Amino acid sequence: MTRTLRLAQAVWALIASESGGDGRLRRRSRNHHNRRERRGGRHYHVRVWWWGRACSTIAAASVLILAACGSGGADGAVESVGISSLDVAGGRLNALPSGPLFMRINHFTQAAAAQIGSKKHQPGFVYQIAGSQMMIIGADSATVSAGEGYFVPGIEHTHTNSGSTSNDWLFVALWPTDIRTQPNVSTAQVVFESEDIAPSTLQAGAYAETLQVVTIQPGGHTNVRKRSGLQVLFVLDGSLRARTDNGTTVLGSNSGTYLAPNSRYQESAADQKPVKLLDFIVTPVGQPFEQVAPAF
Description:
Order of helices and strands: HEEHEEEEEEEEEEEEEEEEEEE
Radius of gyration: 21 Å
Strand order of the largest sheet: 1-2-3-13-20-15-18
CATH topology of the domain at 97-201: Jelly Rolls
CATH architecture of the domain at 97-201: Sandwich
């Protein structure tokens, strides 16, 4: 056993004593713990960077880490700092559409009591920016309030503004490219479209779709990671720095970027204000959702 490994085990033993004592690494990031919150009649998993009493422990542990391997891990990995993420909705695609695909985000604004009827189309997510809406999906109904998301399967449905003022919401989905040549919904404005995604990029079979809301504090950043599926980062508020093997891009509000499967990337706040973004991920069932990648 190497000296670095022994020191790393000592560090995690110290941290575990302040974080519940179970010593387990949490899925998707060692910096996060899972909590369940109830919002609008639903339960959500929340991952937050914990501080509390652990600050003193981490300060002491940092001495061991720096002595062992400098500011990163033994493999050069970078840890997440100042970031929280919330899974707002999820769903399953039993199969992808045939042919080339692309990812699109539509923005909608509805006046009070206005209704939009929708025929069957690709499954995707509603994300409510402001106000609320009542959705009728087949025999089911749901109210979606600001900050909440809802997975819409590929069946007929309606969107009704259930508030007394106008609302704002997004629809996020993966589409076949022949949709590009068809007229968009008259009440919709396209705010993001990815490049065409070749079928050779994607494996056959079922996929899981996930929509997260991520908040990064000033000076904060994610670890360097890669995901097995398709991914879009779309900034709701603030300024995001997205680093990949192709370079660094700074994204402002209402702009986004597409990441191909297994792309190495890191997100960070680009200025001294928090940044809030949507993270839309389409992952092959049976493949890892996320893996830590070496630092840039």
